[in-house]
Amino acid sequence: MKKIDYSLMFVTDERITDDKQFLDVLESSLKGGTTIVQLREKRLTTKLFYKRALAVKKLCTKYRTPLIINDSIDIALAINADGVHIGQKDLPVTVARKLLGLHKIIGLSISNEQQAITANNLDLDYIGLSPIFKTDTKIEDIDVPIGIEGLKKIKLISNKRIICIGGIDKNNIAILIQNGTDGIAVVSAISKANNPEYATIQLKKIICQTGMKK
């Protein structure tokens, strides 16, 4: 298994359209202790996505933090990202692995027990359990929140690392860790904070104090 710290994933906020502000928030999160970055862009053209991905990679390289790309394997290959995060409607994991090679990170979104069982037999580095709580970050194609009870069930049947995403903030991280998550992924908890660096530091502190296994 690749030696990656999945404890605190910052998923970039595509609602921030100003490039400088976008990169400022990202760098603040990296300074604060983000352990892995997921670049998610659903609205940009391929050319603009590529341009933003290059800028994001430059920052992630500066802070020695892995970068994965959401959905777009072509962008991940074009910038030599550390991996991808794909959904149930994207290219099959077997195809993604063939394209990316053995040493890249691949994460897969799952939202129910059957998807978790299927994922057990796939060459994945982690599953993204989504949404764990109610969230307004993703407006389209959102499933019913799986909650703590759902996390417990998935933990019992899954052989993959679990990263929870959806409605996570400093008030509910501890309970997720106590119930077996291997990492948390956040958007608004960092991107909408008055001080993104301090917000990241707070999240990291809770993770460390609660004793999440890496």
Structural notes for this entry:
The protein is α/β, with parallel strands linked by helices. The chain has a single domain, classed as TIM Barrel. Helix content is 42%, strand content 16%. The protein has 9 helices and 8 strands. Strands 1-2-3-4-5-6-7-8 form an 8-stranded parallel barrel, surrounded by 5 helices. Helix 1 (19-32) runs parallel beside helix 2 (46-62), helix 1 runs parallel beside helix 9 (196-210) and helix 2 crosses helix 3 (73-79). The longest helix is centred in the N-terminal third of the chain and has 17 residues, at 46-62. It is globular, with a radius of gyration of 16 Å. The relative contact order is 0.16.
Terminal-residue CA separation: 12 Å
Determine and state the CATH class: Alpha Beta
* Radius of gyration from the alpha-carbon trace, in angstroms: 16 Å
The helix-and-strand class reads alpha/beta
Q: What is the CATH homologous superfamily assignment?
A: Aldolase class I
**Mean of residue pLDDT values:** 94
* Secondary-structure element series: EHEHEHEHEHEHEHEHH
